[in-house]
Amino acid sequence: xxHRTRGAISPLTTDRPPPLPGRRxxxxxxxxxxxxxxxxxxxxxxxxGTLLTVAAVHDLFLL
Length: 63
Fold this sequence. Notes:
transmembrane; mainly alpha; transmembrane helix; membrane; 0% strand
């Protein structure tokens, strides 16, 4: 007999677990694209990308 943990969902059913406290049932969980839309992360990634680009141009054309 297969062991089932409490609250486990079968991949063959469409049942979903109850929403987390403080979250409406119709609200979908936020994923990676939501995190990429945050301004501090965008600025950080732009700075890192700029530094990598400057380093690559320096290596290619000045060394």
